[in-house]
Design a protein that fits this description.
The structure holds two protein chains of two kinds.
Chain A: H1 4-33, H2 37-62, H3 70-86, H4 90-112, H5 117-137, E1 154-156, E2 161-163, H6 167-190, H7 192-202, H8 214-240, H9 250-263, H10 269-288, H11 292-306, H12 310-327
Antiparallel strand pairs in A: 1-2
Helix pairs in contact in A: 1-6, 1-12, 2-6, 2-8, 2-9, 2-10, 3-4, 3-8, 4-8, 6-8, 7-8, 9-10, 9-12
Chain B: H1 2-40, H2 47-63, H3 68-94, H4 100-123, E1 137-140, E2 143-146, H5 147-169, H6 171-181, H7 183-188, H8 193-219, H9 225-240, H10 245-265, H11 271-285
Antiparallel strand pairs in B: 1-2
The chains are: A mainly alpha, B mainly alpha.
Chain lengths: ~325, ~300
Amino acid sequence: MPDALTVAARANHVLVGVLILAGLAFAAIGAAQNDTFYLRLATEALIFGGLALSVDILLGYTGLLSLGQALYFGLGAYLSALVLKAVPSFWLALAAGLGAGVVLGLVGGIIAIRVRGVYFALITFGLAQVVAKVVYNTRSLGASDGLLGVPIINIDLGLASVSSASPAGFFLVVLAVIIALYAVSAYILDTPFGRLLIALRANDRRVPFLGYRTASLRLSSFVFAAVIATVSGTLYPMLRGFVSPELLFFSTSGNAVITVLLGGVGTLMGALYGSVLLTVLRSLIGTWTEHHLMIIGLLFMGAVIFLPNGLMGLVRPAVERLLMRKARP
Amino acid sequence: MAEVLDYVQFVLAPQVVTGLAFGVAVILVAIGLTIIFGLLDVINMSHGEFYAFGAFAALALGWLGLPFWLLLILVPLAMLPVGYAVERMLIQRVFNRPDRHVTTLLLTFGLGLVLEDAFRLGFGPNPYRPDTPIPGAVELFGIFLPNYRLFLIVVGAVVIAAVALVVYRTRLGAMVRAAAFDRNMAASLGVPVAWVYAGAFAFGISLAGFAGVLLAPIYSVFPTMGRDFILMAFTVVIVGGMGSIAGAVVAGLFLTQVQAIAALYISPVWTDPIVFGIMVVMLMVRPQGLFGRLGHA
């Protein structure tokens, strides 16, 4: 009889499989229809899904609400734009994002993990606000305009090469990167380290009595989440060809939190599904009213009150029941 | 020597007074936030939107021909039932969940989004600038001071003093402080805790609305006005100590003066990073803020 966490992890495997298949089918249909708009939209949904993933690692596993995760996403995007303008290499940009994620994650983490609960939410919020304003005022980073004119790059995949201008091709690359980020996160969170993070969320006063240092655990989880956000951010300028300071603003962080809540806190997969759901909702509502913020806000409030486990709270138990039925002969 | 005096008279002093007027309004908003946090343990992310609510309500009623003086009293009173309803119908729904901080923060964040879009729906995205109710300026020691800003400072200071008086010197205030210190003990001594909670929330919201009415003629009225303003109020609450009224006053005066002076000596665009930097450093070094919580000492 597998334990609840294992069943949940297996249910996630099924759900990620569904997402990959849906993504492949979507890319095939999009390419056949010669579509650009919807493929680009879906690519953006996946990129912001990566940001939501990092919020969920902190909120759903370690129990830390970050209101400033856009800080890492935005810095990743700016770094990637700078790298691409100098050297148009996909892998270099990704590697730079990875390195910067570790370094900046350590810096931000050392500042932020000193405090807990509501104070953590506010310190991440404050940090992101300081950096956003600094970037907004720095002329060499394009100030309020951001960095424009990021070149189209050819992504060298060994056997083939994909242009970032090709909607279907780039969509598949982003799908692969985001799924890889998900897989790495899911793997790490399934190790004893991941279980410790869950223990930290459940009761962070008891964990030290088991012989673990909560500070280093919290710091590792913060750096880990920062890396996921930065790497997701590096993909953004390849898609849009520019970065703007809005990527660092609170609205971006807030959106990621909404995404995680709608998708389901502590499910990882929920972050990606939530992002897709939110993007679909936004463009659907956008076709008949420009006041999508109100409807998203109402939905969000409804989710907080009535559906604390989000979309995954509805879908995953059904998948789990299916799996359990199969497990029992 | 004459240049120094001229500088003080024409540059520094007006900047300090402008900062003071802004500071008084920030303190009004921050006191509402801090009472709500000190008593309910709720971070009200929609507080800035209630500040905008007050400004829009004053704007709409002003179009109907109501005088400014009446609005200054009417709008905050009208917002009391709104705040009461929000507390009873929304916040209480998630209040007793284990992660109260996070859920209430998220719920009020959603409410803020809805309200902001509602203002845009009702009034459009463009800013309105109501006429200044008291035009003109007086000359004091050779310094020209706009009448309305002086009025704002005086009225704001009187309201802040009245709030402090009520909280620290009356029976009602004692009940509020008792409920903040120990909810169950206060309830068993006959304090109607549920009523105190909803009442405090309504009162906090109403103070934000009052600040909105006061500031509308200076900073214009537009849907996202609460967003920029609330960041400052949050910083004040954090630096002063969440739940401390004295802290909100001290930190409010200090930070708005820092902002006003930094705008003069460094650059207006760098005031935000400086103020938020102070907030981050404060959270690192002394997360409980300068002063203790409401009801605790």
